[in-house]
Amino acid sequence: MIKRLKYHEIDFEKYTRCLESSEQKNWYAQKEVLDELSGNWELLVYGDYEAIMPVHIKKKLGFNFVHMPLFCQQLGIFSKIDDSKINDQFLQFLKNKYKVFLYSFNHNNIFSENLDKRKNYIVPISDYVILRRKKYFKGRKSTAKWAQHLFYKEIHLDTDCFLFIEGNFKGLDKRDDFDKLKSYLHFLKKKNTLKICGAYLEDKLINVAILVSESQQLSLLALFNDENFKDENGPSFLIDRILNLYIHEKKFNFMGSNIRGIELFFKSFGGELHDYCFTENKFLKRFS
Questions:
Q1: Burial of 231 (0-12, 13-18, 19+ CB in 10 A)
Q2: How many CB atoms lie within 10 A of CB 142?
Q3: Do the Cβ atoms of 38 and 30 come closer than 8 Å?
Q4: In this predicted model, what pLDDT tens digit does every residue of 239-283 receive, in sequence order?
Q5: CA torsion angle for 126, 127, 132, 135 (degrees, to 10)?
Q6: Contacts of residue 107, Cβ cutoff 8 Å, sequence gap at least 6
Q7: Angle at 204 between CA 201 and CA 205, to 5 degrees
Q8: How many CA atoms lie within 13 A of 77 on its CB side?
Q9: Whole-angstrom Cα distance, residue 257 to residue 118?
Q10: CA gap 226, 163 in Å, rounded
Q11: Is the dihedral of CA 43, 16, 194, 137 positive or negative?
Q12: How many C-beta atoms lie closer than 10 Å to residue 51's C-beta?
C-alpha cells in the first residue's frame, strides 16, 4: 500500500536507511541534496519504508504540480530489489493523486507498461589506455590528440570562475536559474563534492567542466565553453584528460542528452547507454 507523506511527516532515519540499502540509490535522492535543489518535496512510501519515491512539488499560477528540480536528472523509486509490480503501484498513485508536469524515474526502475525514455551515457570504470584504444570513436581520438597543446588545471570556485561561467552559460532561461546554479555550486563545495576542471590556451581559460565527485562516480553537471575558441577542441581535451586521470577508480556519468550532436559526443568517449523512464503531461507542458 502506498502512503503520501508531507515533508514534516517523513521519518528521515528510515528514509536514509532505505535509500542507502537500495539497488537504485543515486545522488539526487539524498535528503540534503533534495532540500537544496527542491525546497518543497514530499514522499510516497510503500509499507514501512520498504520502497520510497521522493516527489518535488512546484507551485505556479496558484496550482501545485509535480516537476523535476532544476539540475536534477533522475529520482524515481528506491528499494532493495527493483520490483515492477511495486513500481506500477507508485506510478498509478502518482498519476491519480498529482498533476504531473514531468517526473523522471531512475535507470534501474522497470515497469509493466511502456513509458517514454530519455538517454544517459556512462563510462564504466576502465583502464584508460584500453578505453581509448577500443571504445573511443576514431574521430574523437584524433580530436583529443590534436588538442594536446591545451593546458589542464583543476581550479577553485572563485570570482574569476563565476565570471567565466556567467559569460558562457547557455540553457538557463532566467536569472533566477543562474542564481540557483551558484547556490548549488556553493552547496557542492561545502559538501566537498565539487570538482572544477579548466582548459587553458596559454594563460587564457577557454573551457570549464563542472563535476559532482562521489566516491565511485564523477557526474558532469555542466560544460561551459568560450565560443571564440571552439576550434581549439577544448571539450574533447577536457573530457579526455578527466578520463585519463580518474576512470581507473570512478565511472564517468555524462548526465544524458537527447540532442543528437551531444549524444554522439558522449558516445564517442565509450559512453554506454543507460536510458531511464519518465512521465509527463504534454498539455501542462504547453502552458508552463
A1: exposed
A2: 13
A3: no
A4: 999 999 999 999 999 987 777 888 899 999 999 999 999 999 866
A5: -40
A6: 74, 120, 274, 275, 276
A7: 90
A8: 28
A9: 8
A10: 12
A11: negative
A12: 23
Q: Are 107 and 25 in contact (CB under 8 A)?
A: no
Phi-psi domain of 32 (left: phi exceeds 0; alpha: psi -120 through 50; beta: other) = alpha
Record the cell numbers describing residue 201, joined without a space: 590556451
Residue 60: band (very low, low, confident or very high) from pLDDT cuts 50, 70, 90: confident
Compute how many other C-beta atoms are within 10 angstroms of the C-beta atom of residue 172.
15
CATH of the structural domain 121-255, one choice from 3.40.630.30, 1.10.150.120, 3.60.15.10, 3.30.70.890:
3.40.630.30
Cα distance from N-terminal residue to C-terminal residue, the chain: 32
Axis crossing angle, helix 159-168 with helix 175-190, rounded to the nearest 10: 140
Question: H helices of the chain, where?
Answer: 12-20, 31-37, 84-97, 128-134, 138-146, 159-168, 175-190, 234-246, 260-267, 282-286
Q: Which pTM does this prediction carry?
A: 0.90
Residue type, 143: T
Instruction: Give the domain ranges of the chain.
Output: 2-118+276-286, 121-255
